[in-house]
Amino acid sequence: MRMRNENVVGYEREVEEEEEEMEMVAARGSPQQQMKLVVVGYALTSKKTKSFLQPKLVGLARNKGILFVAIDQSRPLSDQGPFDIVLHKLSGSKWSRILEDYRKTHPHVAVLDPPDAIQHVYNRQYMLEDVADLNLSDGYGQVGVPRQLVIEKDPSSIPDAVDKAGLSLPLVAKPLVAKSHELSLAYNMVSLQKLEPPLVLQEFINHGGVLFKVFIVGEAVKVVRRFSLPDVSKRELSNNAGVFHFPRVSCVAASAEEADLDPCVGELPPRPLLERLARELRRRLGLRLFNLDIIREHGTKDRYYVIDINYFPGYGKMPEYEHIFTDFLLNLMKQK
After folding, report:
1. Which terminal residue of the chain, N or C, has fewer Cβ atoms less than 10 Å from its own Cβ?
2. Could you tell me the CA-to-CA distances from 148 to 5, 127, 202 in Å, in that order?
3. Beta-bridge mates of residue 295
């Protein structure tokens, strides 16, 4: 007897699980039953679905009365569900319109997060404005943003624009649209003309080769260390030329949690500072699911810079994310 194709078996299993989930949703009749089951409709890319909806999260969620149900993008959203929460990370104006219309007709459903608020942090020209306006400074430290310049076209004009803006080399070049995590490090003025606009140029700040990823899930704040680009000395700056490309900083090296780091470099930012920053940015950005890439200027104890904001980041890499995220969803329902 021939073995059945593993892909077919796997697909049938997924279909059976999906049908079982929809039967559970349809079975929600009385208000008492609805209180016991939280249905989260999700619209994610296949890559995000795989990294986020890991078996441990799905299993824990079921035990807590939370059900994740895939949204069928080929069908009207209003015909699906009923959902208590819609979790999404899709791009495009069509999806944004669909979601905005759904929010208006289903005000009782919590949408994570508003499309317009998400679009705001996808554009690096505006992404860090709220941090800069915040100008956070208290007894625990100062938080700012690197000086930056937006270049929309004509790479030949970049050296002159950089000179007029008074920016110092080296410069980090990032795509203007934050859906790409690629970045480049430019060491001299001539090499700037090799960059491809539209982009943002940020002054590179030496930070000991370590950055802090601050994950925010509602009111929960979790911080982890990651290796980053190494410091650039004046000697290296004078001896190097050209543009060095990096697929993404997080690919330069993985977690720095277990590394034997100099305390001046590896010490986490003060918890009260991070909590205040997260609280202020939640309010200003109108988002509940995002993370901050923060660096500490090398040679200082309390001067921090937010260099990037990411919406719905890779929570699967955050320690204890299953418990943090399911608790967040349950608290969201209590607040409703």
Report:
1. N
2. 54, 12, 4
3. 305
**pTM to 2 decimal places:** 0.86
Q: pLDDT tens digits for 60-92?
A: 999 999 999 999 999 999 999 899 999 999 988
Asked if 336 contacts 110 with a C-beta cutoff of 8 angstroms, the reply is yes
Exposure string (b/e) for 193-230, b if CB count within 10 Å is 16 or more? eebebebbbbbbbebbbbbbbbbbbbebbbbbbbbbbe
CA distance 100 to 107: 10
Nearest partner of 224 among 246, 254, 251, 247, judged by Cα:
254
Burial 146-158 (b: 16+ CB within 10 A, else e): bebbebeeeeeeb
